[in-house]
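Continuing the batch. This is chain 6 of the set; chains 1 through 5 are on the previous pages. Same settings as before, nothing changed between runs. Recording input and output for traceability.
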Amino acid sequence: MIEVLADEKVATAVVTLLVAVLGLAAAGVGVGITYLNNLRRHLQESREDTKAIRESTVNSHSTNLREDVDALAGQVREGMTAISLSLRRADARAEREHAERVADIRLIREDFGRLRTDLQAVQASVQRADARVDTLTRTVPDT
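Output for chain 6:
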């Protein structure tokens, strides 16, 4: 078994597979970080809008407070619509990327299956060779 793992081709295949798996994991983490950063940015924008509303209700005004509140409410609605649209786009992008990762994982699993089959064939070949060597050593007289 160790001889099979020491084989350069098997080791190369295993390393290549590990690199691919790590790449997929890194890509998934990157997508998650991007999604969280977008949410954080939208939350900060909402906080800023809320702060502006609070300041307009506390400070003295020369304009009608109701008109100011109505204007801000319109801006908040527009902002929320923009946030909602942005989140829908981010969700769609995340779903697409998730589907791509699922497809990639499916291919990796197929590769694992092929590698397993290849490894079993190599093991069987080694066992046959061992059996032949045993047969030859038994049939050749000691000199």
